[in-house]
Design a protein that fits this description.
3-stranded antiparallel sheet; binds ligand T4K; Aspartate Aminotransferase, domain 2; Aspartate Aminotransferase, domain 1
């Protein structure tokens, strides 16, 4: 099926239609439909296509166009922040922010994250100093951060993994007392709150990803948010090669701009944000019903006191109780056309170049190593129906039952 065919029609994704599409995409017509982690949420297609039509008519495709500006305004308002700068993806957003804030030498970062977080530092010759996580929250453990601070430390880059906020209060206290810059990779956390306040305005800056697989997507894209006007101005300038005027470049910059079609997709998906949350929440409750209570499985819980986007269904496997490995469960799922993922295995420190540059990093990361070996991410999102969840859980339960017998 071609992308234009997938985009035809004028309604939002319904689980039924996408299940049919998945079956059509599968090579074997008799096979179970393919279910994948990361299937994009897509809002009203006709509204998106209308916006694209307008973009084409106006012949303004990039460079701070009307749709990018509108998207930035809408995101800033939604998050309650002063400044929002749209970028072509969160990795470049992280790189620009790191440079704009003058980070150098060493920055403390969790290893249990997507590799982009560490790469954004290392790309600029900064050494990521990997910090272990709290096994309950899966986020950077502030009590270990302090032990890693040296005279070369310039900042902390924390990650709100699965959309659940870090221990922001402790991180802010540490950053303040050691005069460190504090940035959050909030790639997973769009629409999530910390103590009732939307993530976006914490630390010196926060970076969100709007990649296709994220809760809100702009095809590829991201935003940087901050309440610091000077920092925002520098980031804006760096996003566009350092230009301040025609023929005037005042600093080293890069091309980090978001294009108009991405912004149109972002606006269309923002329109549908409540629908996406409801679908994710419904799926989370369904998984909880299906898998909850199994002694070998622990479903990652969202805090009902906070707003969440419920974008990740994460299950921790207790291999001793399960009598089967996490990887065998994942293999069974794959054999049944369910593309579950082992995010974020094996941890950044075990990926290059870090594995070679920091061969002993794992010694200080026992919780990261344990968690990376236990987790499975399961399919969710607006394309997943209750019947799909039943199928996923049936495969998991059958695998566990077979292992126990
Ligand atoms: N920080 C964190 C914490 C992040 O999680 C990420 C991104 C970043 C920073 C960097 O943000 P960006 O620079 O990307 O804005 C995927 C994404 O490429 C990556 O953006 C995301 N994290 C990461 C968690 O997932 P892969 O290598 O797993 O991608 P891939 O190709 O295996 O696709 C993932 C799943 O999504 C597959 O099951 C297929 C499905 N999929 C994917 C696409 C692109 C679709 O169904 N449709 C699609 O269009 O990294």
């Amino acid at each position: 099926m071609t992308i234009p065919e997938l985009l035809s029609g004028n309604t939002m994704d319904s689980p039924e239609r996408t299940t049919t599409q998945a079956r059509q995409l599968s090579a074997d017509p008799n096979a179970d439909p393919i279910l994948v982690v990361g299937r994009p949420n897509i809002g009203d297609r006709q509204r998106f296509l209308d916006r694209v039509e307008d973009i084409l008519s106006r012949r303004w495709l990039s460079n701070d166009g009307k749709y990018v500006q509108e998207f930035e305004r809408r995101v800033a308002k939604f998050l309650g922040v002063d400044h929002c700068i749209a970028v072509c993806n969160a990795t470049v957003g992280l790189q620009i922010t790191i440079r704009a804030m003058g980070l150098c030498d060493e920055v403390i970062v969790p290893s249990f994250t997507f590799v982009a977080t560490a790469h954004a530092l290392r790309w600029q010759q900064i050494r990521p100093v990997f910090c272990d996580i709290d096994p309950t929250t899966h986020n950077i453990d502030p009590s270990r951060v302090e032990k890693l601070i040296t005279s070369r430390t310039t900042g902390i880059l924390a990650v709100d993994l699965w959309g659940r906020a870090c221990d922001i209060e402790s991180l802010e206290r540490i950053a303040r007392s050691h005069h460190l810059q504090l940035i959050y990779d909030a790639s997973h956390a769009f629409g999530c709150t910390y103590r009732g306040k939307r993530i976006g305005g914490f630390g010196h800056a926060e970076i969100f990803s709007f990649h296709a697989t994220k809760f809100i997507n702009t095809l590829e894209g991201g935003v940087i948010t901050t309440n610091n006007a000077l920092l925002a101005a520098t980031i804006r300038q760096m996003r566009n090669f350092g230009f301040t005027d025609y023929d005037q470049v005042d600093c080293l910059g890069i091309n980090g701009k978001m294009n108009e079609i991405s912004a149109a997709m972002g606006l269309t998906n923002l329109d549908a944000i409540d629908v996406f949350v409801a679908a994710n929440r419904r799926n989370y409750e369904a998984y909880r019903e299906e898998l909850g209570g199994h002694p070998a499985l622990e479903l990652l819980a969202y805090n009902d006191q906070e707003e969440s986007n419920y974008q990740y269904i994460v299950v921790a496997v207790d291999e001793e109780k399960a009598q089967v490995s996490r990887d065998d469960i994942v293999k069974q799922l794959h054999d049944h056309n369910i593309i579950a993922r082992r995010y974020f295995y094996p941890g950044c420190h075990r990926l290059e170049p870090y594995r070679t540059e920091q061969p002993k990093a794992g010694l200080l990361l026992p919780e990261t190593e344990k968690l990376a070996a236990r987790l499975i991410c399961l399919p969710t999102g607006s394309t997943i129906a209750r019947v799909d969840i039943k199928r996923v859980c049936e495969v998991i339960r059958t695998t566990l039952a077979r292992a126990a017998s």
